[in-house]
Amino acid sequence: MTGPILTSPDDREDETATTPADPKPEAPRPEVEGTDVDEAMITNALRGVIDPELGDNVVDLGMVKRYERGADGVMHITISLTTAGCPLRAQLMRDAKARVGSLPGIDAVKIHFGEMTSQERSDVMARARWKARDNALETDIPATCRILAISSGKGGVGKSSVTANLAVLLADRGYTVGVLDADVGGFSMPRLLGIDGQIEGQRAGEGKTVMKPVARAVGAGMLRVVSMGSIAGSNESEAIMWRGLMLNRAVQHFLEDVQWGSLDYLLIDMPPGTSDIQMGLARMLPRTDVLIVTTPATAAQQVAARAADMARKGFLRVAGVIENMGPSVGPDGTITAVFGSGGGQALAEAIGVPLLTSIPLDAGVAAGGDRGMPVALEHPDASASAVFAELVETIVTDVAPPVEIAECSLRGALVRAGADLEGARRRAEGR
Ligand SMILES: Nc1ncnc2c1ncn2[C@@H]1O[C@H](COP(=O)(O)OP(=O)(O)OP(=O)(O)O)[C@@H](O)[C@H]1O
Ligand SMILES: [Mg+2]
Asked: Which of 151, 160, 268 to mutate to test the pocket of ligand 1 (most atoms within 8 A of CB)?
């Protein structure tokens, strides 16, 4: 399920040495019916749909059979499954629908499933094997991990605060949550999450580094955090050297060279603006879902819309809008709207995605950030905390439910039952 873990320079050299000798088995192109079907656009969107069992996307595996625009305007897509009773059917349907449905000009999508012939099945397996060997993803992030990038057009709208609060609440539910601080120049995750451990860079030849995230147990789960702020060496000059080596391609290094281990979720705290990092992410991790954070002010909406547009140009799915610093309700019921109201809803309508929530302006968010104790965990009764908790519920049930395949469905059931999986693991390891 996971890509190879690089542990030493030798492994890295091995990897380049084992480029498969046999040519890549090409996936057949889908049949296209109707003249108004933008094949490239749909294909790119479907590249974000991963079959977690086979560890690759449905396009490159050759599972996509047909695109057809019906007379009623509905986009019909046929996907072949390895077996008709594939347990991943519902998840593939939901992911494919969400991705294609978020494309401009496509209002309704219907997914049809077929069953592969035995020849098709063996061809798909051959592609999956080739891909596993080729390791084109070049990342240790498991195929079963849900990836959410928290993005915005404008700085200071609360991306990092939202990321930190979502991360601790997901971990508290028993999930293993990776946090990638993609704000390379203005990192904030170590401070917001109270992380003071450091990532030790290990040299792995050709200027490459191999890194382990800084781990912090939270409730029944675990956070694994990677940030420029946690890059260290045995002394300050070595730390400066590591940072310098990484600066240009830091996010790519984080994706390629970090040993993430098992992950249920990866949250990516994006830098402000529509930068190269966004485009790079779209290229490197096309299965990322984007959450756009905006304030209720109208000026913020326009730039946030640009961020959404950028995500879509890279064929990332924008999964929803989060309004932050929204109206708050005082104990006597008075509503205070420091930054106005309604901006989140207006943006959601403008870009055609759901408004997931409106987080109120709450001094506890800032105070918790300063102490490295996200408010949602430290003060669950604070006004913003209840909203963060509802948002996490929406994420795990609707926006990006954890991937459950055979071994993980047991895990999912245990997590839902409140089992302390991480605690049990730590106790077993005698920590
Ligand atoms: N709901 C909220 N209520 C009160 N303060 C908030 C709220 N959300 C964020 N803040 C505060 O607003 C400031 C900016 O938040 P944050 O750093 O999370 O934004 P950002 O979008 O990540 O910024 P940047 O673009 O610089 O990375 C911080 O001081 C934070 O504590
Ligand atoms: Mg930030």
From this structure: 160
